[in-house]
Amino acid sequence: MKDRREAIIIRTGIIGILANIFLASFKAVAGILSNSIAVILDAVNNLTDALSSIITIIGTKLALKPADREHPFGHGRAEYISAMIIGIIILYAGFTSLVESVKKIITPQIPDYSAVTIIVVSSAVFVKIILGLFTSAMGRRANSSSLTASGKDALMDSVISLSTLAAALVFIFKGISLEAWLGVVISFFIIRTGVETLKETLSKILGERIDSKISIAIKKTVASVDPEIRGAYDLALNNYGPDKHLGSIHIEIPDTWTAGKIDSVTRKITRVVYEKFGVIMTAVGVYSVNTKNNSAAEIRSRVSAIVHDHKDIVQMHGFFVDEEEKLMKFDLVVSFGSEDMQAMYEHVVSDVKEAFPDYDVQVQFDVDLSD
Description:
36% of the residues are buried. The chain is of the alpha/beta class. The protein has helices at 2-34, 37-63, 78-106, 115-142, 145-174, 179-206, 212-223, 259-277, 294-307, 341-355, and strands at residues 231-239, 245-254, 279-289, 313-322, 327-334, 360-367.
């Protein structure tokens, strides 16, 4: 699977490099001959795209390096770094284009379009649309943020080339030169693409919330491993590359389970989750649920009513009470929408302690990591 993914990314990258160098060469010649700043900037933009494809290939190769002592989780995040570099290159190209365009506004030059220029720019629009759609599709297929970013950039380039063509036709038929002003517009489009690419990549590096469909599916799968599992909670996934996720989860189980039973079930959970989702579960924690005393259910119900009387509490789980030792334990999930999460947690704990003054109330503070 990894070899197939690598082949897709490298093949798509090479196609992008060749296509962009081809387009850049023809556009540069056409731009110089026609004295068109817009066409020349379009050519420069194609060169940055070729460089982006090279960086994508390098990033993929680095990401496939095996884990070592210094990087025990592998090098998968190198792909995100390569996507970030691509974003920086796009930003640089955008700001450079903006500076050159402003210079042309201050000291305008009249372009001299020829039939060759029109043909070159028209062909570039078609090629860039095909290349953008192809690269984006391959990016989704290979789950490559770098390819996806390159695909978006290529589609944006087709719009840029189309606007350059429109400006050339306006000058030919109306005698109005929109060259420099169009260059400014193109520059802002390039800058926006760079900002979006950086924003998306940095979000992945910082760590994003788990996709709702995936988190719900994993929890449902975990809970179905054994009919006695009461629920699955606290799912956390750490992203170490597009195809490498390490996770942990807690399950509620009866207090009658033996160590052997727990070991068997948690191992099965690890295997099933990996086979179905490709996620490596590094830890499966357990919450013991009261089954030996009916009054525990009544206490849980009372505590639950107190807890959920506060709108900023998302969930209570892992509840266990030892009436002989007068010990009560559970976890609280506090919403990120709370004005003061810590204060909300302390307020709820205080309310529970007030209702059960004879108990040692131990509450774990949790945040809303997944749906």
